[in-house]
Structure formats: C-alpha cells, structure tokens
Amino acid sequence: MARRVLARTTPRTETSAARCRPRTSASRITSATVADATKAGDLNVSHRVAEGVQNAKHSVYTGPVKAAKGSFVLTAKYKKAAKALAKKEVALAGARLANLLNSELK
Asked: pLDDT for 15-32, tens place per residue?
C-alpha cells in the first residue's frame, strides 16, 4: 500500500512534534469493555429507558447516595462501581449506534 507524503512548508520543531504525539499510549490501555450483543441488537427505546431506570435504582441511587437531600461523600467502592457502569453503558451505546447506522444505511 503506497503512503502519501505531504511536503512541509515549515520545519518541524520539537514543540510541533510533541503536539502530534497521541496523549494515551497503547501500552497504557489495559482492556476494552465489550458490549452485550443481545442488548446492542435491541433498538427499542422503551427497553433502553427501562434499563436506565434499573441502573439508577440498583447502581446510582444506592449508599452513600440515596433519595434524600444533602451532600454525600462518595466512597471508593461507589466510584469504582460507577466507573465500571459508565464504561459498560458507553460501550453498549456505541454498539447500538453502530447497529442503528448499519440498519439504516443498507
């Protein structure tokens, strides 16, 4: 496969080279979250709403955050669970978007 090379009109400096480096190296990425294929294939909006309500009840509005007024101190356990849920939901949203685009662009 031939590579296309563009001529530079200005010399490359250390600062411009540093700006071109990726911010996250591949070696620092430990694992990718994989979406559930069954859920990803379900494009029914009411099912997504029900999943969101279930996640809120079982994962978000639990200790230390509850249905009460006031400020809360989030524990390390809560933050870890919230991060895991967010990664799972982002992966699922991406898979659903891909399925939607594939079905609409056939």
From this structure: 555 555 555 544 444 556
